[in-house]
Design brief:
- Strands 2, 4, 5, 6, 9, 10 and 11 form a 7-stranded mixed beta sheet that branches. Strands 1-3-8-7 form a 4-stranded antiparallel beta sheet, with no helix packed on it.
- It is mostly beta strands.
- The protein contains no helices and 11 strands.
- The protein starts with a strand and ends with a strand.
Length: 117
């Protein structure tokens, strides 16, 4: 069973935009914090942005003013609007969700984002 379903990745030219989505199954119960991470080849996984259940957000310095994280609690879905994309944004983007019901972090399978120069 897919607990977190990510979509929206793809290939885009530098300066372009993409919108990622992450839909959480009801199986994981009540959701608290939702995060987007990314991992580029040969690099450590890094936190890109996070949003709490009350809508508070945080961003990595490298994406501030370019990326916007949001969530729809009714739809149990998180979004990442990525604008002004750069080649260095190329990575697998992973959805990460904290279940308040099970006190557990869940990870999605990841979606590839490739930005060409």
């Amino acid at each position: 069973q897919v607990l977190l379903l990510e979509s929206g990745g793809g290939l885009v030219q530098a300066g372009g935009s993409l919108r990622l989505s992450c839909a959480a199954s009801t199986t994981i119960g009540s959701i608290n914090t939702m995060n987007w991470y990314r991992q580029a080849p040969g690099k450590q996984r890094e936190l890109v942005a996070g949003v709490t259940s009350d809508g508070s957000t945080n961003y990595a310095d490298s994406v501030k003013d370019r990326f916007t994280i949001s969530r729809d609690n009714t739809a149990r879905t998180m979004y990442l609007q990525m604008n002004s994309l750069k080649p260095e944004d190329t990575a697998v983007y992973l959805c990460n969700v904290y279940s308040a019901t099970y006190s557990h972090y869940y990870w999605g399978q990841g979606t590839q984002v490739t930005v060409s120069s």
